Task: structure prediction
Amino acid sequence: MQRLFIPVLILTAAMFAYSPVAIASAPYESTMLLVQKIFYYHFPAWMALTAAVTVCFVSSGIYLFKGHAWADRLGFAAAEVTVIFGMFGLVSGSVWGRKAWGVWWQWDARLTMAFLLELIFIGYLLVRKYGGPGSEKLAAAMGIFGGATAPFVYKSVDWWRTIHPKTSVMASLGETSPEMWYVVWFCTAIFLMLSGLLLAARMRLETLRAGLDRLYLAAED
Result:
């Protein structure tokens, strides 16, 4: 994995540098016009968050029931990545909402549940930082809870009345405007690779930190 990190980093950087060109070449949406282009980063940010939440959910379950230290480190790293992309998604969505709805924020089902999901994982990090002995188990339980909450965020626009676009928007986009659809998925690939790189870097850091802690304990003995 370490040997792949640099090539993937270079590829991700090159794709990210090209992404504004691809976004600029995509056609304007008929009603939102220029502001709609925020979507090309907004949707990929939530896809990257979804991937990070899934990793945190699975690794937290493994740690909670099996006690593997590597799963705890992976869950911790994934929670940090989740918070990063969640914040990006909320801010970019608010900028878009200011143009679409006339306000920066609406307390509708999708937005509220997305905000609560972000708070859950911020809470995960706070528990790990300040929870004291045994906080790893409690944080793992929060990671499982956050992962179980994520599907409700996704389906909220279909289950409840909401001003947020439905989940079918991507399927309709592929039919009505293939040019937009390709650019969206190009940017999604960038964000997924970026989330993978961040996850690998944080996992590596946590592994080195755990090794350093073992050396300190050995020196004290």
Remarks:
- The CA atoms of residues 28 and 83 lie 31 Å apart.
- The chain has a mean pLDDT of 86.
- The chain has one domain: 35-220.
